[in-house]
Each structure stands twice: as C-alpha cells, then as structure tokens.
UniProtKB/TrEMBL annotation:
It catalyses: 5,6-dihydrothymine + NAD(+) = thymine + NADH + H(+); 5,6-dihydrouracil + NAD(+) = uracil + NADH + H(+). Keywords: Oxidoreductase. The keyword Iron-sulfur does not apply. The gene is preA. Gene3D superfamilies: Aldolase class I. The lineage of its organism: Bacteria, Pseudomonadati, Verrucomicrobiota, Verrucomicrobiia, Verrucomicrobiales. This is dihydrouracil dehydrogenase (NAD(+)). Its EC number is 1.3.1.1. It is an enzyme of class 1 (oxidoreductase).
Length: 379
C-alpha cells in the first residue's frame, strides 16, 4: 500500500504537507490545531528578536476573484512578519512541543544584517525545542526597507554570509526560503547551499500590485488612501512556483545532491502537490490555501496524493520525486526534435507507398507505385 511518510534532513514526517509560514502558524493555538488535523509539519510565522519594530496595517489583504466572482485565484498581502513578542514565541514553541511532541515544528526566523542577532535568534529558538529552521530571506514588502527579507535574498554574497553565520550556530536542519523576485533563482539558491544549508524552500510571494479601484482611482488594498506593493500568492502563482522549483531541483541534482527542497506557491490539492514532487520537491507547503479552506484540507490533500500514487503504482514519495525533470530542454532542441519526427513520418509514409511483393501491383496505381520505388539521378 502506498505511504506518504517521509524523512527529510532527519525530520520524520507522517506526510509531506507542511503549513507554510504565515497566518496559519501564527500562534500556539493554531499550531496545535494544525498538528491535530494531521499536517506533516508546521512552519511558524516568521519571528524576529525585536517585534516592537513590526507594525502591521489593515486592511492588508486583497483577493483576485475568477470570472464567476466566486473563486479566489490570487491573493496579495502587505502583512509583515510576526508582531508578537519574541519571548512569548519562545514560550509558545515550548508549549507546542510539550503538547505535540511528535509534531515537527520549524521556526521561521529573520534578522537584520548582524551576526550576533542571527546567532542569538538561532540559539534561543533551538533551546526552546524547535525541530528545524527556515530562514526568511524573501518577504518582498516592509522588511526590505530595513535591508531584511527579500533585500537579503536578492544579494547572493550577503545571503551566503548570513547562512554561514546560521550554520555555525544551528544544531538542527536549516532551510533557506527563496524570494521569486529575482531573475535567476539558482544564484541565491546556490549561495545558501554553498554555505551549508540542508535545503531550500521556494517560493515566497511575488511582488505585486493587486489593482486600482475605478471609483476612487486609488490602488488596493487602500490604507488611508495609499498602498504599497505587496506579495502575491495562491492558485495564480502556481505556474511560476513550478518553474522555479524545477530550476532549483535541476541545480540540486547537478551541484548539490542530497540537499532538500520544499516547494510551495498555490498548492490546494493532492494533484498540485504531486506536480511539485514530480519536479523535485521533497515536501510541499500550503499557506494561502489554509486561509481559504481551513486546516481540515490536509485530509483531502493526503487522499488526493495517495490516489495519484495508487493510480500510477508508486509506493513512496521517493518513487516519483523528480521523475518529470528530464523532460525539460531548450526551445532549439524542441525544434530539432519536431523536425526530426516530421522527417521520419514523411519517410515512413513514403515507405508505406512502396510495393513489398509483386502481388501488390495494381492497374490504377501502377505509375504511382513505380515512382515510389524509383530514385532520381541527374543526367
Ligand atoms: C498573509 C500572508 C502572510 C505571510 N507571511 C509570511 C511570513 O511571515 N514568512 C514567510 O516566510 N512567508 C510568509 N508568507 C508567504 C507564504 O509562506 C508562501 O511563501 C506564499 O504565500 C506562497 O504560498 P501559498 O500560495 O501557498 O500561500 C505569507 C503569505 C501570506 C498570504
């Protein structure tokens, strides 16, 4: 029988479905709820040492609806990292692990460009009992103004240095979360993996402007009449996330074998998850999906993924991880392969028109049959 169990970087997960950092992991109540519903792991909302610098606004979300106006397909947020005190978080990490000792709890952390701050946040979170770290180098709004988040993730040299500090202090697995707001995601990914991170997560939100209200002429979400570009997530970003996951998986396969990849961006079904795994993900995360459908969606995610595996005869996630990766190539190669196939088809058609025994000669087609057997030479 097919199984969803997996071990990644030594972390034992009952299934590959992880709560992505954000509102669904924003305090101990919801973290415990996620474990109770059966999520394979939880990545808590990103924390920093000094939450007093984090001031959120409202409204801070904007939704893009599909044509029928009923389905949310895109979601923009201008939410910052957690505005809750670090000391409270440490107590809640302990409480979550005491209540759910088998629940895999990953702390998402972010700090300014300061070695002592990164070492302190790593040390104190791991003393509180978390099982792993995700380094948030990817929030596209608010934090870059303090040279944090995406501002760090867009600079491979700084990213490599910071990952090096973290790897010097961490005794548990570390994943670096990548921003999609770069031209070549392989460059910051390689920097994080060169520094020794166990794995990477991709993608965070895509820098966006949700729209302009045609009555007020103000961009959305409007706060006191103004807005700021935010981060785009949900179903609409899945094709972009899949492309980046594919590029990272190719890099890992070539230069960093054995490192892990946690894929996310628009995952809502077991079939979505199967596609991320086929393109090289070890685990998959869901953030906006939980905000749309609730914690109980994990049951359907597991059932959907198991149904795919059973339909294809896969028993474990390893049986199909990365299986679709070899089927990417350059456009020039697509052209070459298509011309070759067309030439082969034409030759096959020509061969089919040739008589194979004298009994096939026919009065009506005699000239055509003679021509098919002939090769022309110039005189
Ligand atoms: C409201 C909201 C808040 C988020 N906050 C964080 C955060 O604190 N840290 C982080 O690493 N990612 C954060 N994210 C990004 C998500 O973890 C995820 O990378 C992104 O939304 C794409 O996945 P999804 O389509 O499943 O949401 C947030 C996303 C949303 C929608």
């Amino acid at each position: 029988m097919a199984s969803l169990e997996t071990t990644v970087d030594g972390l034992k997960l009952a299934n590959p479905f992880i709560i992505g950092s954000g509102p669904p992991g924003t305090n101990v109540k919801v973290i415990k709820r996620a474990f109770k519903e059966g999520w394979g792991a939880v990545i808590a909302k990103t924390v920093s040492l000094d939450a007093s610098k984090v001031v959120n606004v409202g409204p801070r979300y904007a939704k893009l609806m599909a044509g029928d106006g009923k389905e949310v397909i895109g979601w923009e947020n201008i939410e910052l990292i957690s505005d809750r005190k670090f000391e409270i978080w440490l107590d809640e990490f302990k409480e979550a692990k005491d209540a759910c000792p088998d629940g895999v709890l990953i702390a998402s952390i972010m700090e300014e460009y300061n070695k002592d701050a990164w070492c302190e946040i790593v040390g104190r979170c791991q003393d509180a009992g978390v099982d792993g770290f995700e380094l948030n180098f990817s929030c596209p709004h608010g934090l870059p103004e303090r040279k944090m988040g995406a501002a760090m993730g867009q600079d491979p040299a700084i990213l490599e240095e910071v990952c090096g500090w973290v790897m010097g202090a961490a005794k548990i697995p570390v994943w670096a979360k990548m921003t999609p707001n770069v031209t070549h995601i392989e460059e910051p990914t390689a920097a994080a993996l060169r520094a020794g991170c166990h794995g990477v997560s991709a993608i965070n939100t895509i820098r966006s402007v949700m729209g302009v209200n045609l009555d007020t002429l103000r961009p959305e979400p409007t706060v006191e009449g103004y807005t700021t570009p935010g981060g785009y997530s949900s179903k609409a970003v899945k094709p972009i996330a899949l492309r980046m996951v594919m590029e990272i998986a190719q890099l890992i396969k070539k230069d960093f074998p054995g490192r892990s990849l946690s894929g996310l961006g628009g995952i809502e079904t077991g079939a979505d998850a199967a596609q991320f795994i086929l393109l090289g993900s070890d685990t998959v995360q869901v953030c906006t999906g939980v905000m749309k459908f609730g914690y109980g969606m994990v049951t359907e995610l597991c059932e959907g993924l198991l149904a795919f595996m059973e339909g294809k005869g896969f028993e474990t996630l390893a049986d199909f991880k990365g299986l679709s990766l070899p089927y990417f190539t350059t456009h020039a190669e697509l052209v070459r392969m298509q011309l070759a196939r067309k030439a082969e088809e034409a030759a096959a058609k020509e061969r089919a028109g040739m008589v194979k025994s004298d009994a096939e000669w026919d009065g009506d087609d005699f000239v055509k049959q003679s021509d098919a057997l002939a090769r022309k030479a110039s005189s």
